[in-house]
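Repro case for the chain-ordering regression, as requested:
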Amino acid sequence: MSSIKIKIQLVANDDIAMGPGKADLLDAIQQKGSISAAAISMNMSYKRAWDLVSIMNKSFKQSLITTSVGGEKGGGAQVTDFGLQVLAQYRAIETKTNDAVSDETQVLMQMLVDS
Amino acid sequence: MSSIKIKIQLVANDDIAMGPGKADLLDAIQQKGSISAAAISMNMSYKRAWDLVSIMNKSFKQSLITTSVGGEKGGGAQVTDFGLQVLAQYRAIETKTNDAVSDETQVLMQMLVDS
DNA sequence: GCACGCTATATTTTTATAAATATAGCGTGC
DNA sequence: GCACGCTATATTTATAAAAATATAGCGTGC
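-- result from build under test --
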């Protein structure tokens, strides 16, 4: 059973503040405890993940991710409480929008060619 | 007063079925009566507009845009009734999502750096 | 039969994005 | 003091997307 997925991008002053990619990366970092492990799990280059982390930390009032270098595990990354709040807020927006327009998207889906 | 804009992309089998760009192009074609005039009004190349029209016509069960070549005005393009229905459905989804999560997006906006 | 304005399409060039590679630095523990 | 695993960053290479350019065709009206 196929269906339409809704991608929601929150855009502030011309660049994307939060979208599915960054949200998923936050999730993965929280789960894995490091940027590199998160990147690998998402099939993403470390550089790309690190760039996204940098952009996120710069675009919000507080850091969403803190990192540490060296130590027994070589270092790591943690999602801050503030980061978890941002993520929860984004997930809430995702859920609410999907709920709000499920009927309408189904109608539109039926207008698409079968695939 | 700045605010977050929500970009909604309806994604079916890996490629975007409808997003803000295609919707705006449909609007412009309906208003201008030609692909080229619509493209100019959107600061878009004719080729890009034509490609989008082609993709839209292929991805829906019926054509959203019909075109004619030659004639007194050189030709033109019209949005079909079906195209108008698709557009209306997309706009309805946009409006409903914005209404459904305006509170949540405002909270998220306040978490962003001032710009 | 030529000019006009549009559709239709191919080809080339430019630009932007992503991926790959390389290197340095850090702190713990052996 | 060396290895490990991670962060941090620069540089290069490859790929994809967009833009630019070019050309052909159509039908009306002069």
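Ordering looks correct now. The helical segments of chain A are 20-32, 35-41, 46-59, 81-100, 102-111.
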